[in-house]
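How a chain folds remains the central question behind the approach discussed here. For one protein, we set the task of working out the structure tokens from the amino acid sequence alone. The sequence in question and its structure tokens are set out directly beneath this paragraph.

_____
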Amino acid sequence: MIEIIKADAEHSQLIAELAQQTFFESHGHSASKDDINNFILKTYNAEAIRKEFENKQVAYHLIYDNEILAGFSKIELQCPNINISEKNITKLDRIYLLEAFQGKQLGVKLLDFNIALSKKQHQNGIWLVVWTENNKAVNFYKKMGFKIAGAYDFQISETHTNPNHVMYLEYN
């Protein structure tokens, strides 16, 4: 049984731990070990996550597979991007599944859930950034209808960036 629940600030520690693991699984080889570890500790800690809940445009959701936490997502409503001319769009800021749960269609369910939530808020589309070398993710988003709209250098450390695609799905 798949269940998606809205997270709140009380879930900050849980989200931080999950984010650390999933980011390492998907990006751990994209920079030096020190750069990755420093980025994870700075970005994915309970206090940083808790602070994000202060923004009313941000929503975190947790996905469970048979009552086991499998992943999470974060969207931000009304978040423009310089590569996209459309107004009233949502940023899919994070969508991560633990490796053990990939290939079970949970990513599709979580993405569809976030798209439906975005549409309910009268948004015109949803965008994200994805590491260009993460072929599995790039192909997943293309299959889901996203198109490459631009480029973005994702800052891992002061000395290291990863090239990312900005991808956009316009709602019909």
